[in-house]
Structures are given as C-alpha cells and as structure tokens.
Amino acid sequence: MRTLVLTVIVLALCAAPAMAQSPRLVNPGHLLFVVSADHPQVTTYVLGWFAPGAATPTREENLGTGVPSGTNELTFTVNPHPLAFGQDYMVRVKARAGTIDGEWSSPSNPFDRAPGKSGDPLLSK
Fold first, then answer.
1. pTM of the full predicted structure?
2. Greatest CA separation for the chain
3. 40 domain-assigned
C-alpha cells in the first residue's frame, strides 16, 4: 500500500536573517502547503493543532481537498481561536484517503495564540 506523502512549505522568504528580524507570528489566519503526491486519491487533508511539546494534536480539523494552484499548493483559512492563549503552538498536516491516514508533516514554525483576530499566514518549515 502506498504511503501518503505531504510536504508543508515555507510561506515567507527563505532568507534566515529576514526570518530572524520578523516579529513573532500571533494568531495565524492562513495555511499553505504542497499537496500530497497521491492528491487524486486524497479524500481530505487533516490539520492538527499541537500544543508545545505535545506528541498528539490538541484538536484536528478536516480541511477537504481544495483545488491546488499551478505550483501544487493549497491555501486554507484557519482559525486558532479555540486554542488556549499561549506560545509555541505548531500545526502539522496529513493526507487521508478513505480510512488510510498518511504521516503528519513536519511541524510549522511556532506561533502564539493571543487575544485578537486571526490574520497573518502560518509560516511552516
């Protein structure tokens, strides 16, 4: 049986100095990732919200399959508000084909959940 593969990508410039000078992301509003190589068989992508140091997600959210861009990327609006206020949350994404789940992607860059509205894109590794 084939393994579902998913890669989460960076939404910002890849220059490390630019990342180091950027303000810390608070309440991300969008998620961007490269689709699974098995995208035609995928029935949904699952977003996992991970608390700092957690091995399992605090909650999961079915994203659907969306329509990939010309560069095989999907963008989804996300809402971190059900999370408790705190720092260093991360998200991971996995592909699901029927009852078969792929592996969780690499974690996103850490972000903070704070009072206020969602907005900036979620940076990912």
1. 0.76
2. 44
3. yes
Q: Which two tokens stand for residue 113?
A: 């959940």
Contact 58, 87 (CB under 8 A): no
Sign, CA torsion 92/7/75/111: positive
Order the strands of the 30-34 sheet from edge to edge.
Answer: 7-8, 30-34, 73-77
Q: Give the DSSP letter of residue 12.
A: S
Region class of 6: left (phi > 0), else alpha (psi between -120 and 50), else beta: beta
Cα–Cα distance for residue pair 78/122, rounded to 1 Å? 9
What digits encode the pLDDT tens for the residues 57-114? 999 999 999 999 999 999 998 888 778 888 889 999 999 999 999 999 999 889 888 8
Number of domains comprising the chain:
1
Taking a C-beta distance cutoff of 8 angstroms, is the pair 44, 84 a contact? no
In a domain, 118, yes or no: no
**CA torsion, points 63, 83, 58, 101, in degrees to nearest 10?**
10
Quick one: tokens of 36?
């699974």
Tokens coding 50: 């991970």
**What residues make up the domain containing 104?**
7-14+23-113
